[in-house]
Amino acid sequence: MQKSFVTISILFISIITISYFAGSCRKETKTLLPATIPQVVPDGFPAPVYQFRDNPLTEQGFQLGRKLFYDGRLSLDGGFPCASCHQQVAGFGTFEHDRSHGYNHSHTLRNAPVLFNLAWQKEFHWDGAFTSLYDEAQQPITGHIEMAETFPGIIAKLETDNTYKKMFRNSFGDETITQDRILKALTQFTGYMTSANSKYDRVKKGTDSFTDAQERGYQLFKTNCASCHPEPLFSDYKFYNIGLPVNTDLNDFGKMLVTGNANDSLKFKVPTLRNVNISSNYMHDGRFNTLLQCVQHYVNGVQNGPTVDPRVANGILLNDDEQRDVVAFLRTLTDSTFITDDRYSKPQ
User: Which candidate, 117, 63, 75, 76, places its Cα nearest to that of 93?
Assistant: First the structure.
């Protein structure tokens, strides 16, 4: 009788022990349900073109994309994460540099575009080669003079990191790391980034006011510049030849390289002017260092040709004071809260 009691007791304790460890294992592998976050649409902005219907925006997916964006392991030698060309201090463009550096310290062919308000765009890169954030993210990762990595190579590295396994599980339901999931996470991070809190925006809301020079510049801007850079996005995101002479070292003919159509020769995408004061250098190849140089190009630097946009073909008439006033207005488009927002900065 006593022997049977001991046997039953041991069996009972064993069951409790197994249940405890099984419960502990289940606790360790618990998957958090993705927390949906709303897409930010600032006051006065139109409805975004991309609304994450094919890639639901979640806090877990956003944070995974943020970690990937800053991780050098997405590049072949570990030295060139997405953030090396898209720096927060420059509105996620390249800070005070004409063209970015990539793998093996190669010089890339174009100035890195800023990464914000991307959800309002239909085409990406200076030549419009890509029509979705998902597709455009692949090219820099695999480009031989940019990050120069392969997705199998990236996946092999990330699979050794338990933190990533947990983040992929919480974002997508299990630990499997795939190219599709990497690109979806990057799309969530970059597509969510929104900038709309500049002095210009505060003036529009009635909580701030322009100086006299800024107000004069604003009126000149609306008369001379707004047809290509309309408010509130400050770009129509179309493609024009603005009369920049060809850089013979690069021989970059813009959209024609994508379409093969001679009518697209030297046409490049109109960049947003939001945060333009902090995103130098300027133009597709970063040839200008200052905003005043950009304005002066339109005054007396346009090189006419068969595809030059007629709105700039004869130059824009601005005297020296007016040029400075336009620059004063452009500086009001800086969103200092965006470039210091911890939510977009490198994870600690």
Answer: 117
pTM over 0.70: yes
The top-level CATH class assigned to 199-337 is mainly alpha
Q: How many CA atoms lie within 13 A of 241 on its CB side?
A: 23
Q: What is the pLDDT of residues 312-342, one digit of tens each?
A: 999 999 999 999 999 999 999 999 999 999 9
pLDDT tens digits, residue range 188-220?
Answer: 999 999 999 999 999 999 999 999 999 999 999
Cα(144)–Cα(75) distance, integer angstroms: 10
**Where exactly are the structural domains of the chain?**
59-195, 199-337
User: Options 1.10.10.10, 1.10.760.10, 3.40.140.10, 1.10.10.60; which CATH number does 59-195 get?
Assistant: 1.10.760.10
Which tokens hold the place of 218?
A: 């604003």
Angle CA(86)–CA(91)–CA(97) in degrees, nearest 5? 60
